[in-house]
Design brief:
Strand content of chain A: 5-15%
Largest sheet of chain B: 5 strands, mixed
Largest sheet of chain A: 4 strands, parallel
Number of domains of chain B: 4
Distance between the termini of chain B: 87 Å
Oligomer: heterodimer
Shape of chain A: globular
Number of helices of chain B: 21
Largest interface: A-B, 19 and 23 residues
Order of helices and strands of chain A: HHEHEHEHEHHHHH
Radius of gyration of chain A: 17 Å
CATH class of the largest domain in chain A: Alpha Beta
Shape of chain B: flat
CATH topology of the largest domain in chain A: Rossmann fold
Number of strands of chain A: 4
CATH superfamily of the largest domain in chain A: Response regulator
Order of helices and strands of chain B: HHHHHHHHHHHHHHHHHHHEHEEHEE
Structural class of chain A: alpha/beta
Number of strands of chain B: 5
CATH architecture of the largest domain in chain A: 3-Layer(aba) Sandwich
Strand content of chain B: 5-15%
Helix content of chain A: 40-55%
Number of domains of chain A: 2
């Protein structure tokens, strides 16, 4: 409740229209089908049982309205849930800690990115994926800088976003990305989110 | 003067006097009744008639106490109560046991006090009063008695002389009446201390827990110590008497033998109470254990008598045979009836221990959570509020500083959130209830610096408490492996075989884990509360293996 009202105010203040605010999973699926919004923001824990109804509702909404962008927010992040959200291989998925709302600019950027079909994964999820690496695995061959770039890629950032975040030129980031993709033997993808999915798939299989 | 007059005209004084004098009759009667009752009971101690005798003693004591309660209320103004009996269980034996409650023994003590203190006091008061009235009435009788009266240093025998008795008597009467008040107040104290009911047990469960808190209940050993001391004194005295007198036939042996037998039986019963493990040797039957000890002591007693007397025909064979038959019968009962009972007793003992452990573990966990909240999130929220307040203050005059403070506040909020998240995860990780053990352990593994192999096959999902216990065993093991064992790798394997969840956690660290450390003890309690078992194998040099089995039917 508190979070929903706060988010509504935050989004409206930043010229994002809020077409519906509902309190449970059923309501979410119903409104998504009726209103076809650009993006649904969902808390994982919803009534009645406060377990993972929000996640189930988000997946159901994406099944019923293909390509529906959802941003799932939660008090905890678990890479299992990230995997479930990304399983259909489509873009338009976000999974963030609720804390990220406090960094308003970054949060709005993520909202816009997911609505546009991109990806926004919480740095904590990415860190969980990274920590599962094998000793002497291919990830060990990356330079520290390349590892930083890779984790930002996994979060779903564009080259421009990575450049801004690491205070590099876009050109330099592009060079790092090329090097990473070749070291990890990942395909060159035309769009950002395909590239992100490839990276995530790689990280999830890394062990 | 005023005080003395008021005391003399106050009816209370005469009620107190009546109380004190009542001991003249009641004291000897009570004493005689108790002596008779207990002697008969002691005489019947080895026959079944002891039970009715005990019941009679109980009812008699209660009846006498009832009378004393009325007297104490009417004459002493004490809020006295007759002894109470609260059987904690239904049934005759529980009822009989409840008759001999602490208040019963206090009432008994009170009745004895009425004899051994009350009677002499009453005599003293009576003597004082008679002396006072006797002196007052000198003129009426001294002239007519041959030789007058004698008060030691003076022998008045004429009418004129006897007139001197009037002022002395007038002085003595108030004195003897005035001493009744302090004497009676002594009995008020005794009566209110001894004639009071026992506290009513609220629920046996809670009092049980309270007892366990203070450690196991210790049976009173001092009774045995007193017996040893008393026996030794008497035996030594007897031997001393024997030594300074005839030195002939060693008669003190007839003191040593019964004392020794009684002492052995007492010591055996105390030992059984202190070490329940001995009872387990007797197929869990306390009756059998007691009987065996008593039988052995009696057999030794008879054999010793035979040895110190004529020796000749070994007559003790017959009583020993009798005892053996009784023991054999009890053994039969223990073998046929008691295995189930013994199992139940053991089960109850296990449950009591594990429940106490679980309660302790929960208490500790709650205390830790409270401390973490207090030191962590609460403190951070206070400092965050302060930053916000200062920012509000600076907003107009120093917007830049206000901005810094706001950024600080946000960082503080994030920090508080992270701490709360970790705390909540430590209580119960949400992914465990959402997705089960596999996902929860994979998540745990992903945040560990160790390389962790997780293999979980537990379908169908066990009960939440079992999942949670298994999760925390693995989590604690992982934390220990990281912190203490300097391990680099860990295998967590959980399988469900029918109704048993088996967990094995093995690291490649340097071992040496202390199975009695706080962490592992907490885990053990948690597992045992679910009827499970936990074993820790951690030789110095490693590796450490922790195994847990949890029933999940």
């Amino acid at each position: 409740m508190l979070l929903r009202d706060g988010l509504t105010r935050l989004l409206r203040d930043n010229e994002i229209e809020v077409v519906a605010a509902v309190s449970d999973g059923e309501g979410l699926v119903r409104e998504v089908i009726a209103l076809r919004p650009d993006l649904a923001i969902v808390d994982i824990r919803l009534p009645p049982s406060f377990q993972d109804e929000g996640l189930r509702a988000a997946l159901e909404a994406r099944r019923r309205v293909p390509g529906m962008a959802v941003l799932v927010v939660s008090q905890y992040v678990e890479h299992t849930y990230a995997q479930e959200l990304l399983a259909d291989g489509r873009g338009g998925v976000g999974y963030l800690l609720k804390d990220r709302v406090m960094h308003v600019a970054d949060f709005l950027e993520a909202v816009r990115r997911v609505a546009a079909g991109g990806t926004a994964l919480d740095p904590d999820v990415v860190a969980q994926l990274f920590s599962r690496r094998r000793e002497n695995g291919p990830l060990e061959r990356l330079t520290p800088r390349e590892q930083e770039v890779l984790s930002l890629m996994a979060e779903g950032r564009s080259n421009a976003g990575i450049a801004e975040s690491l205070v590099l030129t876009v050109g330099a980031v592009e060079k790092h990305v090329q090097s990473i993709l070749s070291k990890l033997e990942l395909p060159q993808s035309p769009t950002d989110h395909r590239r992100v999915l490839a990276v995530l798939a790689y990280l999830q299989q890394a062990d | 003067m005023d005080v003395i007059v008021r005391t003399l005209v106050d009816p209370t004084t005469y009620r107190r006097l009546a109380y004190l004098l009542s001991a003249l009759v009641l004291g000897p009667v009570w004493f005689a009744a108790l002596i008779t009752g207990w002697s008969v009971t002691a005489g019947l101690a080895v026959t079944p008639l002891v039970i009715p005798a005990l019941i009679v003693v109980a009812f008699m004591t209660r009846g006498l106490a009832e009378i004393e309660v009325r007297i104490a209320r009417a004459l002493l103004d004490v809020d006295a109560h007759p002894p109470s009996a609260h059987p904690i269980r239904p049934g005759f034996w529980a009822w009989l046991r409840a008759q001999f409650s602490p208040s019963f023994w206090r009432a008994q003590a009170y009745l004895l006090v009425r004899w051994c203190v009350g009677f002499p006091v009453a005599i003293a008061v009576l003597v004082a009063l008679s002396a006072a009235f006797g002196t007052l009435t000198w003129p009426a009788w001294v002239p007519f008695v041959h030789g007058g009266t004698n008060i030691g240093f003076w022998r008045p025998h004429t009418f004129l002389q006897s007139l001197a008795g009037v002022p002395i008597g007038l002085l003595l009467i108030p004195i003897s009446l005035l001493i009744t008040r302090p004497l009676a107040s002594l009995f008020q104290t005794i009566a209110s201390a001894l004639l009071k009911p026992d506290p009513v047990p609220v629920a046996t469960g809670s009092s049980d827990t309270l007892l366990r808190r203070d450690g196991p209940r210790r049976p009173p050993r001092y009774a045995l110590q007193i017996q040893i001391a008393a026996d030794s004194v008497l035996v030594f005295a007897a031997i001393a008497v024997w030594a300074v007198t005839s030195l002939g036939y060693f008669w003190p042996v007839w003191l040593v033998l019964p004392f020794g037998t009684a002492l052995a039986i007492h010591a055996w019963i105390v030992m059984l109470a202190e070490r329940p493990s001995i009872i387990a040797q007797f197929r869990g039957s306390r009756t059998l254990a007691v009987s065996a000890g008593v039988g052995a002591a009696l057999a030794a007693f008879w054999t010793a008598i035979w040895a110190v007397t004529a020796q000749g025909y070994f007559w003790p064979v017959w009583p020993i045979l009798g005892v053996a038959i009784v023991l054999a019968a009890e053994l039969m009962v223990a073998l046929v009836v008691s295995p189930r009972r013994a199992a139940l007793t053991e089960r109850i003992e296990t449950l009591e221990t594990t429940r106490a452990g679980a309660v302790d573990a929960q208490e500790n966990a709650l205390r830790r959570i409270e401390r973490d909240l207090h030191d962590g999130a609460q403190a951070r929220l206070v400092s965050l509020g302060m930053s916000l307040g200062m920012a509000e203050q600076k907003l107009s005059e120093d917007p830049q500083r206000a901005g810094e403070l706001l950024a600080e506040a946000r960082a503080g909020a994030e920090h508080a959130l992270r701490e709360l998240r970790d705390l909540a995860r430590g209580i119960h990780p949400p992914v465990l209830s959402d997705r089960g053990l596999g996902a929860a352990l994979a998540s745990l593994a992903s945040t560990s610096p160790l390389r962790v192999e997780v293999s979980v096959h537990v379908a169908p999902r066990p009960a939440p408490a079992v999942e949670s216990a298994a999760y925390f065993v693995a989590a604690e093991a992982l934390a220990n492996a990281t912190k203490h064992a300097r391990a680099r790798q860990m295998d967590i394997r959980i399988t469900r075989v029918d109704d048993l969840l088996e967990l094995e956690v093995r690291d490649n660290g340097r071992g040496g884990a202390d199975p009695n450390g706080a962490g592992l003890q907490g885990l053990r309690r948690r597992v045992e509360a679910l009827d499970g078992t936990l074993s820790v194998i951690s030789p110095r040099g490693g590796p450490t293996t922790i195994r847990a089995q949890l029933p999940c039917g």
